[in-house]
Automatic annotation (TrEMBL):
This is Preprotein translocase. It comes from Mesoplasma florum (strain ATCC 33453 / NBRC 100688 / NCTC 11704 / L1) (Acholeplasma florum). It is found in: Membrane. One of its GO terms (biological process) is protein secretion. It comes from the Bacteria.
Length: 112
């Protein structure tokens, strides 16, 4: 128990030191003119990809993505299925009537 308290105190002290160091660094910024900024070319270094780690983490990433998907419940699927069937029946009747109308029009003008 005493070790945990001592470790927590040490961690808090390290955080305070880090905060003071970052505050000092913020104050000591170097001013560079616009001309020198334009002339300086900085190449970004690419970080090497750790393929072994990526292969190990791949299944975990897949599981996280699958957990994001919201799967439909049975009641929701029933409602959607009924709605789709009703639309299919409605449009089947609509196109059948349109076909009958076009057929009657062609008979009227003696094309059929």
């Amino acid at each position: 128990m005493a070790k945990k308290k001592h470790e927590e105190v040490v961690l808090v002290e390290e955080q305070i030191v880090e905060q003071t160091n970052t505050e000092k660094n913020k104050k000591q910024k170097i001013k560079i003119s616009k001309k020198t900024k334009k002339s300086i070319k900085v190449k970004k270094q690419k970080e090497k990809k750790n393929f072994k780690l990526a292969i190990k983490e791949f299944p975990i990433k897949i599981v996280k993505e699958l957990n994001k998907i919201k799967w439909s419940g049975w009641d929701n699927l029933k409602k959607k299925y009924i709605i789709v069937l009703l639309f299919m029946i409605f449009f089947a009747i609509l196109f059948f009537c349109i076909g009958l109308g076009i057929e009657a029009l062609f008979r009227l003008i003696n094309v059929y």
